[in-house]
Design a protein that fits this description.
Layout: E1 7-14, E2 20-27, E3 36-41, E4 46-53
Antiparallel strand pairs: 1-2, 1-4, 3-4
The structure holds zinc ion.
């Protein structure tokens, strides 16, 4: 569950291979909807769109 203050740690997973490559903090107060970032994926060996997930492994 999210703590007070609206900050939440989320994982970023590659939208293609589903590899969990990055961890980031998001601020629920400022952002709505899903976070998507274009980042390098080690498994794909190229830039892929990464989507946030709260399911941390
Ligand atoms: Zn990938």
């Amino acid at each position: 569950m999210a703590k007070k203050g609206g900050r939440e740690i989320v994982a970023l997973v590659c939208s293609v291979c589903k590899s969990q490559n990055y961890m980031t903090e998001r601020n629920k107060l400022n952002m709505e909807g899903k976070l998507t970032l274009k980042k390098y994926c080690k498994r794909c060996k190229q830039q892929r769109l990464h989507k946030e997930t709260t399911k941390l492994k």
